[in-house]
Design goal:
The complex is a heterodimer.
Chain A (H helix, E strand, L loop, with lengths): L2 E4 L5 H10 L1 H15 L9 H20 L9 H28 L1 H4 L7 H28 L12 H22 L4 H16 L12 H4 L2 H13 L10 H22 L2 H4 L1
Helix pairs in contact in A: 2-6, 3-4, 3-6, 4-6, 4-7, 4-8, 4-10, 6-7, 7-10, 7-11, 10-11
Chain B lengths: L1 H5 L1 E13 L4 H12 L10 E13 L3 E6 L5 H8 L7 E7 L2 E4 L12 H11 L4 H15 L14 H13 L5 E5 L7 H16 L3 E5 L3 H7 L2 E6 L2 E6 L8
Parallel strand pairs in B: 3-7, 3-8, 5-6, 6-7
Antiparallel strand pairs in B: 1-2, 1-4, 8-9
The chains are: A mainly alpha, B alpha/beta.
Chain lengths: 267, 245
């Protein structure tokens, strides 16, 4: 029979055990959120495609048709989608995390469960949304009869890097949002700035501004492009971004684990 | 002695819980900065001692009544035992799987069907899908919602909602149950059903902590009572009418 010890402060090992025993909840929560999201809508699942499509069309019209931007000889539409694969996933999850935690208040104060489940299940839902973007990409590549690069076998690398980056930032947001609700207002502003500082719709070949060097999203986007676009050469080293992501995830876990123990008293 | 310890389901030692009332972010920052620079903080820290040195044991299979006026700390104690909030000091040891029916249906989402909600609620209580499936028919039968089980719970009558919510918590395999005013829900017929269910759980050897203001109900089921006043245990022992304390 399992024994639970209740103490003022849990060790991180205890918290990992709790997460393991509550692992079913991550999927249950993700399935619930996906089901809820499209109930009582006429278009239903189609909404999942509309969001990335709108982003895509705007970027293509602005950069390709109005500004006539050239992107290293690549097809512009495909180039943009590879950027959106990283950006859409990152930005929708990060924009949501603060509010989901605040809205889970009723649950957090009535039932015990590992709070990190909220973030992990949102990452799963983000993965399902990403599938929509991938489908759009595949359709367009078939339509333009453009085969992917052989590096496509490494596609898990950018996927993992983007997931970990999103996880790290989400943990940071989650660790502070319940005490400083200002974060709910700061996050959308930062995201808007970040969108322009990330090479989603343009190439950074030949640019060496500092905000590209220390922006881990650049590493995610460049890796995606290296995996998908033929003959693509990454514009800047990937490693600094990877290190920043590792730091964000590590520190994020630490901070979130600390706040998790007191969140019910402050939310 | 060792045998004795194995029979104890819940052991609570010197649990204290202090709530700080100034949890506002900006106050916290001010406080942290002033202490950091060695300045006497201008913001004062107000706090409430919700629980003070709570110590008791519950044997396996025992049913404990937890009584006290509003604000005496009953809910806080239950929240500590259900791990929702951590104690400020002290320790508790719980042997077996604990389910708290603090507020039935708190994990329910209005847009989801009764079926989806039962599964989600089970996952919330740490159950696997198979474990819930094993109990699912029993839950549906008890809650008497029939075909409504696949309709969003927002379309349920409040009676149906409560029945599903109660059954969704009470029918899962657990060793220890925390029942907080569960009888304040549903009509007479459903209350009788709940009572029968609680009796059944008791016969099966489940341990229970019951909060209720219904003395008749407490006298019927509970072996012992704990009376809380202002966060302290004022009486612990045989069942008595709590207004006499």
């Amino acid at each position: 029979m399992n024994v639970t010890i209740i103490k003022p402060r849990k060790s991180q090992v205890d918290q990992i055990k709790e997460l393991y025993s509550g692992r079913n909840l991550i999927w249950a929560m993700a399935v619930r959120d996906i089901k809820i999201r499209y109930t009582q809508t006429i278009l239903g699942w189609l909404w999942m495609f509309i969001n990335p499509l709108v982003n895509l069309v705007i970027l293509v019209i602005v950069f390709s048709k109005i500004i006539n931007l050239e992107v290293e000889g690549q097809d512009y539409t495909v180039f943009v989608i590879t950027g959106l694969m990283a950006w859409n996933y990152f930005s929708t999850v990060v924009a949501d995390v603060g509010n989901i935690i605040m809205n889970s208040r009723g649950l957090i104060q009535k039932v015990f469960f590992p709070k990190i489940t909220i973030i992990l299940s949102r990452l799963v839902v983000g993965g399902v949304e990403l599938l929509a973007t991938v489908l759009i990409l595949i359709v367009i590549m078939i339509y333009k009869s453009q085969p992917p690069s052989f590096n496509i076998v490494y596609i898990l690398l950018p996927l993992l890097l983007t997931t970990f980056l999103t996880l790290g930032i989400s943990l940071w947001v989650g660790a502070f949002v319940y005490r400083f609700r200002d974060i709910v207002h700061i996050v959308p502003i930062v995201l808007r700035i970040l969108m322009f500082l990330s090479p989603i719709g343009y190439s950074i070949v030949g640019k060496d501004e500092v905000w590209y060097k220390f922006n881990p999203l650049v590493s995610c986007i460049e890796l995606y492009r290296w995996c998908i676009l033929p003959h693509y050469v990454v514009a800047q080293p990937i490693l600094p971004g990877v290190l920043i992501v590792l730091f964000l995830v590590g520190s994020g876990f630490y901070l979130f684990a600390r706040m998790e123990q007191t969140i019910a008293d402050h939310l | 002695m060792k045998l004795d310890q194995q029979k104890i389901a819940i052991s609570v030692k010197n649990i204290c819980k202090t709530y700080h009332l100034d949890g506002r972010g900006e106050d916290m920052l001010k406080y942290k900065f002033s202490t950091m620079f060695g300045v006497q903080p201008k913001v004062e820290k107000r706090s409430i001692k919700a629980l003070q040195n709570i110590t008791f044991d519950v044997k396996k299979g025992e049913c404990i009544a937890l009584v006290g006026k509003n604000g005496s700390g009953k809910s806080t104690l239950l929240k500590v035992l259900s791990k929702i909030t951590a104690p400020t000091s002290g320790e508790a040891r719980i042997v077996g799987r604990l389910a708290s029916l603090l507020e039935v249906g708190s994990g329910f989402h209005q847009e989801l069907s009764g079926r989806d909600n039962i599964y989600f609620n089970g996952a919330l209580l740490g159950m696997s899908k198979a474990e819930i499936s094993a109990k699912f028919d029993e839950i549906v039968e008890f809650s008497e919602v029939g075909d409504f089980i696949d309709i969003p719970v927002k379309k349920y009558s409040s009676g149906m909602y409560v029945r599903v919510a109660y059954a969704g918590g009470a029918f899962l395999d657990n060793d220890i149950f925390i029942l907080d005013e569960v009888l304040s829900v549903g009509d007479k017929k459903f209350q009788d059903k709940c009572l029968a269910n609680i009796q059944k759980l008791k016969n099966e050897g489940c341990t229970m902590i019951v909060v209720s203001h219904n003395q008749e109900f407490l006298n019927k089921f509970c072996d012992r009572m704990i009376y809380l006043e202002k966060g302290q245990i004022k009486y612990q022992g045989e069942m008595k009418n709590y207004w006499e304390l």
